[in-house]
Amino acid sequence: xxxxxxxxxxxxxxxxxxxxxRCDPISEHNRLYWYRQTxxxxxxxxxxxxxxxxxxxxxxxxxxxxxERPKGSFSTLEIQRxxxxxxxxxxxxxxxxxxASYEQYFGPGTRLTVT
Amino acid sequence: xxxxxxxxxxxxVPEGENLVLNCSFTDSAIYNLQWFRQDPGKGxxxxxxxxxxxxEQTSGRLNASLDKSSGRSTLxxxxxxxxxxxxxxxxxxxxxxGGGADGLTFGKxxxxxxxx
Lengths: 115, 116
Hints:
- The complex is a heterodimer.
- Chain A has strands at 5-7, 10-13, 19-24, 31-37, 44-50, 53-57, 65-68, 75-79, 88-95, 105-106, 110-114.
- By secondary structure, chain A is mainly beta.
- The mean pLDDT of chain A is 92.
- In chain B, 0% of the residues lie in helices and 61% in strands.
- The interface between A and B is medium-sized, with 30 and 28 residues.
């Protein structure tokens, strides 16, 4: 059973450009979460999906951010018109609804640097 | 709004010592609590999960306890080793209105160094 995978692992972009990250959850995991982590801080919750339905979005998820999970499998997180403040590690996690504990398993993250 | 605090922020101890990391949260209506380990520049590794109805969980040299009513959890590491050096994060989830656990709220972590 492979773990959660994220691509790309690193992304350097210029301010104002759009970027898209992909997350592939553990197979059969029907919940998928996105978090953002800046240096020296704990991860902050952004949004999560159950299958293809987006159940909750944090206030941190501004209008420039959009997440999708069209077929209930992989998910993408897009940031439009990137700003330097978007530089962070973007983490994805998944969990299995049938597992009552809802334990979340994290991927290695995508590190975004906006220059 | 749920807030999670971890004490101490950093800890450096010689190899072999037993140690305790502390976590507190403001809203006791949690669904579960997870302890994670994070190595520099890496993702998170789940160490232990305690459901709201449980009092403790153990895995090898790690033991985590939960006192939901007082909003506290501790992570006990026995016989520490240099390989335990990492940042340890505590996170809680609330109950989602549609059932099950909500997204996690994290503390800032405890940066642990075990000296050889």
